[in-house]
Amino acid sequence: MTSRRTDLLKAEAHDAMADLVGAESGDEIIFGQNMTSLTFSLSRSMGRELDPGDEIVVTRMDHDANVSPWLMLAGDLGLTVRWIDFNPETNRYDETSVDEAITDRTRIVAVNYASNALGTVNDVRDISARARAVGAWSYVDAVQYTPHLVTDVQAIGCDFLACSAYKFFGPHQGIVWGQRQVLERLTPYKVRPASNELPTRFETGTLSHEGMAGTLGAVEYLAGLGRETEGGGTNRRADIIRAFERIEATERPLCQRLLAGLEAIRGVRLYGPGSEGRVPTVAFTSEYISPAALARSLAEHNIFVWDGDYYAMEVIERLGLAETGGMLRVGLAHYNTEEEVDTFLDVVEHVSTGAR
User: Fold this and answer.
1) Into how many domains does the chain fold?
2) Residues 57, 29: one domain?
3) What does pLDDT average to over the chain?
4) What is the pLDDT, as a whole number, of residue 353?
5) 190 and 280, same structural domain?
6) CATH number for the domain that contains residue 37
7) Can you tell me whether residue 164 is helix, strand or coil?
8) pLDDT at residue 232 tops 60
9) What's 120's DSSP letter?
10) Pick from 90, 129, 248, 251: most CB atoms within 10 A?
C-alpha cells in the first residue's frame, strides 16, 4: 500500500511541475538533487552526441551551474567555447555578441532566463530560436525566473529548462524539463537494472520522495494563489497563470519602490536594468561600506541578504567587482510589504552613510 501511494505521489509531482512550466506531460519532467547536479548529468548525455571542434555557447551573465558543466564538457571532448557578453551599461546581452557567438558549428546554447545577480530577464525565446536555426540544443536556466513570472516552455521553444523548488517556496529539489524527442534520443548515465522509460531513465538512484512531495505542495500553494473559488479549480495550469499575474502585480511596485529608494541613498550604486524587464532581485554597492559588512549589519536588524558573487562569478568579474567583495543582493517576493521595503531602505541608509 505505501509503495503504491509513493508511486502515485511521484506521478502527481511530475504532473504538477509540468503544469508549472507549461509542459505537455509529466514524463518530460526530471527530478534530481539540485539544478547543478542535473545539469552536470545531462551535459554528459548530450556530450555523447558531440564531436571535437563542435561549439558550446555560454554567457557572462549566468550562475556558474549553467557555465562550469559546459566548460568541463568542452575540456573533456575538445569542444570550442564561445561566450555571449552583456553590456555593463544596459545590463542586457550585447546583440553583436549573440550574433557572433552562435554559428553553424554551435551544438549547445546555455543561457539564463533571469540573472540571479542583475535581475535581468533575457529574451530566451529569441536565443532558443537562433539555436534551433543552426541545429543546436538550447538549455535555459530558469531558477531565478520561475518564482516570479509565468514559465511556458512551449512558448519559449527551448529544448531544456531547469529550475529549483526551493526558489518557489518548496524544498531543496532540482527539476529539469526536456523535449520528449530529445530526452528519448539521449543516452542516460544510469545503472543497468534501472528503467529506460521516461522520466526515470534520467532520475538516477533513490529519489527524494519527501522532496518531491514538498515540491508538489509548493506548486499547489502557487496554484491556490490563482484559484478563483475556494476549494475549487479544475485547471491547475490556468490557476498557476493567474497566480503569477497576481504575483507580478504585487512584486512590480515593490521593486520600483526598492529601486527608487536605493537610488536616493548617497553612495549607493545599483546594478541591473530599471523596473521593466527584470525580476525583483536587486544588487548594489555602497562606496562607504563593503557588501559583507553591510550584510552583517542588516542581519543584526533581522534583514537577510547575500553578498559576494552568489555563484554568478562571471557577472562580478565582468563588472570589475571581484577584488572589492562583489555586490549586496536583496530579493523580494509576493509576501513582502511596503513597510518592509522602507525598513530595509532606512537601515541601508543609516549603516551606509554612517560608515562615511
Assistant:
1) 2
2) yes
3) 96
4) 83
5) no
6) 3.40.640.10
7) strand
8) no
9) B
10) 251
Rg of the chain on CA atoms, in Å: 21
pLDDT in tens, 157-199: 999 999 999 999 999 999 999 999 999 999 999 999 999 999 9
Partners of 268 in the β-ladder: 286
Instruction: Measure the CA angle with vertex 244, ends 309 and 141; round to 5°.
Output: 35
Which of 291, 287, 283 is closest to 267 using CA atoms? 287
Cis peptide before 199 (omega within 30 of 0): yes
Peptide bond into 69 cis (omega under 30): no
CATH number of the structural domain spanning residue 253 = 3.90.1150.10
Other beta carbons less than 10 A from residue 66's beta carbon: 24
The predicted pLDDT at position 2 comes to 86
User: Residue type for 131, please?
Assistant: A
Residues 6+ apart with CB under 8 A from 46: 73, 108, 137, 186
Domain hosting residue 324, numbered range: 238-354
Answer whether residue 232 is part of any domain.
Answer: no
The pTM for the full model equals: 0.96
Same domain, 70 and 214: yes
pLDDT at residue number 230:
64
Domain assignment of residue 231, yes or no: no
Say if 233 falls within a structural domain: no
Q: How far is CA 185 from the centre of its chain?
A: 25
Cell 525598513 -> residue? 343
